[in-house]
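Let us practice reading a record.
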Amino acid sequence: MARKHSKRDPYIDLDRDDDAPATVVSCWLCGRPTGKTVVWHHPVPKSRGGRDVVPMHPICQQTLIANFTNSELQRHGMDVEGLLANPTVSKFVAWVANKDPDFRATTAKKKR
């Protein structure tokens, strides 16, 4: 049986057109276009039965993880407006709105 992909480079896409522009995906939380690094986040944590994934900036995902527990994320589910109702998250989204898509910064640690 013939190989579908090259043995040396399993990630090469033979049908890809290099002249085609890359699709720009927007972040699920802040709505800004994503940069080079895209994190596929589970809005409902996998430990709570979540299967759907959404694209996010790494800094946006870190903010969600620092401000919500898994059970709180499960309660909100795919409801972004519910997450943005949190004053800390809404303040973060307003702050990050004018930043570069690949902007990185340290975020607050999870409150225990």
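A brief commentary: The mean pLDDT is 83.
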